[in-house]
From TrEMBL:
Pfam families: RNase_T. The keyword Ligase does not apply. Keywords: Exonuclease, Hydrolase, Magnesium, Metal-binding, Nuclease. GO terms for biological process: DNA catabolic process. One of its GO terms (cellular component) is cytoplasm. Belongs to the exonuclease superfamily. TREX family. It comes from the Bacteria. Residues 7-182 form the Exonuclease domain. This is DNA polymerase III subunit epsilon.
Length: 238
């Protein structure tokens, strides 16, 4: 059985900033789909630890500072629960699908670090963004989740809400596996390892492009997580 015919767990965050090293979690969703089982979802709205949500971020995901402070749960508690839920997914052997995983996993890791929680255990991660850039590298146009949904003919209801994005990312990953048999033929371990290399190559290529006009530009190549104590520019694709 190929990985894409089994259970998939979608993971998505909406945050205060495109910088994964400083962003605070506003909303989060972990959804489980596939394998002919009912879809399940866990959602969080946080109080962003009392911080302000910039207008630009609120315009993207629709959550204002007032709403987060009034209705959100304690961010520390939310981070603990998110880590716990993802740990259960990992222990179940279910791969985690995350669009531009480097961003979401790094945001969660820095939140865990702030509150003194243990880092998330190693997981099998599937990143439709990295995969798309590898299998169709010369296709022009954007590679946002909205663009990938259009390209792979996946319905996206409510873009930039964590639950909608998490489900859509799983659907895109499934489409990628059905369209490119070489992906479906890989084991989860092989696919994860391949994406580590692909992400590094993609970052190096983008860095080379940026340096034509910005000689000191640095694009982070680590995947699916930016190691702690590193401060590189980060590409936010969604």
């Amino acid at each position: 059985m190929s990985w894409h015919t089994g259970r998939l767990a979608g993971f998505d965050l909406e945050t205060t900033s495109p910088d994964p090293l400083t962003a605070r979690i506003v909303t989060a969703c972990i959804v489980q789909v596939g394998a002919k089982q009912p879809t399940t979802a866990a959602n969080w709205l946080t109080d962003v630890d009392g911080e302000e949500i910039p207008a630009g971020a609120a315009a993207v995901h629709g959550i204002s500072t007032d709403k987060a402070h009034a209705e959100g749960v304690d961010l520390r508690l939310a981070v603990e629960e998110i880590l716990g839920a993802l740990t259960q997914v990992i222990l179940s052997g279910i791969p985690i699908v995350a669009m531009n995983a480097r961003y979401d996993f790094s945001v969660l890791d820095r939140e865990a670090q702030r509150y003194g929680f243990q880092p998330l255990a190693d997981a099998f991660v599937i990143d439709p963004f990295v995969i798309d850039k590898q299998v169709d590298r010369y296709r022009p146009g954007k590679r946002t989740l909205t663009a990938l949904c259009e390209h792979y003919e996946v319905r996206l209801d409510g873009a930039h809400s964590a639950d909608a994005d998490a489900v859509a990312a799983c659907r895109v990953a499934w489409r990628q596996a059905t369209r490119y048999p070489q992906l479906a033929a890989m084991t989860l371990d092989e696919l994860h390892t391949a994406q580590v290399g692909w992400a590094a190559e993609q970052a190096a290529s983008l860095q080379e492009h940026f340096r034509k006009t910005q000689p000191d530009a640095v694009v982070e190549g680590a995947w699916p997580l930016i190691p702690r104590q590193q401060t590189h520019l980060e590409e936010r694709a969604s």
